[in-house]
Design goal:
Blueprint: E1 7-8, E2 14-15, E3 18-21, H1 29-39, E4 43-45, H2 55-65, E5 76-81, H3 100-115, E6 120-125, H4 132-148, E7 151-157, H5 162-171, E8 176-182, H6 191-200, E9 203-207, H7 214-217, H8 220-229, H9 233-243, E10 246-250, H10 255-262, H11 271-281
Bound molecules: NADP nicotinamide-adenine-dinucleotide phosphate (NAP).
């Protein structure tokens, strides 16, 4: 990866500029993660949520690539604690009636076992809990796991309310280093939240980036910029995000797309092109 895009979190750790997403891949997860790492991805996103993620196959994939010229420290691994409301009742990975504290502890234990690793780079709270008290309880537990050394950093996901993010940020000891959100029109592309992140040295991670934005990808502006650079519309959109210091997730199952997504640093968008894309998004 290009060293000009060496993103560092507020704790001084490297976060890859794009992250391979492992949702919905079921029994194909291990092979696809191996392919992604072999293609050049150094960031992997998963969750302790069997409903959508096969976390143990992510661990199998890591086992297959580690030792073959790749060290664990070169891979940035993030997983999530998912509250009971986000789990399939038939496959909850922790004791259903346990306290939030116990759920978080059990979830991380399962993740460490699934991932066959002694540490997680970033543990993400998958979404706000039922109420603020529970959110704080989950966070305090996550902080204690950071203190134990099993998790290096913390993050939040599906937090779309700026006031809530500000409140949590103020109240906690270990500050979140990432916010992982759906990047889409309905939230105005989280303009204020992204500003908050950049003011606090947090990274905004986007998902649903392509899926939620067909109108952006098919816009005349993006089409013209793609033609000029000889790139695809997704590559232009990803490069736009990258130049906006957004870490994008891609869960492509297509090896050609993996290479295309990883090769976006080969070209650069001009400030004028950035403005044109911001106009399409309604951000100018
Ligand atoms: N925190 C959360 O609540 C949450 C929710 C959803 C997802 N996520 C994370 O985000 C990851 C990514 O999910 P996503 O929702 O953004 O969708 P995605 O799984 O990345 O799917 C994006 C779609 O875009 C296509 N695609 C990717 N690269 C392309 C390219 N260069 N050119 C053309 N098409 C391309 C893919 O098709 P091909 O396979 O054919 O390339 C796929 O159909 C997930 O795996 C998960 O890790 C997190």
């Amino acid at each position: 990866m290009n060293t000009n895009n060496r993103f560092l979190t507020s704790t001084g750790r490297v976060i890859p500029w794009c992250i391979y997403g492992t949702a919905w891949k079921k029994e194909r997860t291990a092979n696809l993660v191996v392919k992604a790492i072999e293609a050049g991805f150094r960031g992997v996103d998963t969750a302790c949520q069997p409903r959508h993620y096969n976390e143990s196959q992510v661990g199998d994939a890591l086992k297959r690539v580690l030792g073959k010229g790749i060290r664990r420290e070169e891979i940035y691994l993030q997983t999530k604690y998912t509250a009971i409301d986000g789990q399939d009742p038939k496959s909850v990975p922790y004791t259903v009636n346990a306290s939030v504290t116990e759920q978080v502890n059990q979830s991380v234990e399962v993740s460490l076992k699934n991932l066959q690793t002694s540490y997680i780079d970033t543990l993400i709270l998958h979404s706000p809990m039922r109420d603020y008290e529970q959110t704080l309880e989950a966070w305090r537990t996550m902080e204690s796991i950071v203190a134990s050394g099993q998790v290096y950093q913390l993050g939040i996901s599906n937090f779309y309310d700026l006031a809530l993010v500000e409140r949590l940020y103020e109240d906690v000891e270990v500050k979140p280093v990432v916010l992982q959100n759906r990047f889409y029109q309905e939230t105005g592309y989280d303009k204020e939240l992204r500003e908050f992140c950049s003011n606090k040295g947090m990274f905004y991670e986007s998902f649903w980036t392509l899926t939620a934005n067909p109108h952006v990808l098919s816009s005349n502006a993006i089409k013209a910029i793609a033609q000029k650079h000889g790139k695809t519309a997704p590559q232009i959109f990803f490069r736009f995000l990258n130049q906006s210091r957004v870490v994008f997730l891609t869960g492509t199952c297509d090896e050609q797309h993996m290479l295309e997504d990883l090769s976006i640093l080969e070209f650069e968008l001009s400030e004028q092109e950035m403005v044109l894309i911001r106009l399409v998004l309604g951000l100018e």
